[in-house]
Amino acid sequence: MRRRFYELHVNESSHLANQTVTTKAELWAIEAEILCLDPDTRVKVSLGRSAAIATSADRKDE
């Protein structure tokens, strides 16, 4: 499924696919940044930072 979103994104044929890939890239960047932290801290940081991205993505749909 991720590959299909990427293909649609690259072809610029779907606004939803573009938004999904962009949002996922932001979330993956957070995970890459916090990889060196201990598991409990990673969960806290990930939830805190990803919530803002998820909220922002929800607002783009309106």
UniProtKB/TrEMBL annotation:
Superkingdom, natural source: Bacteria
The protein, known as: Uncharacterized protein
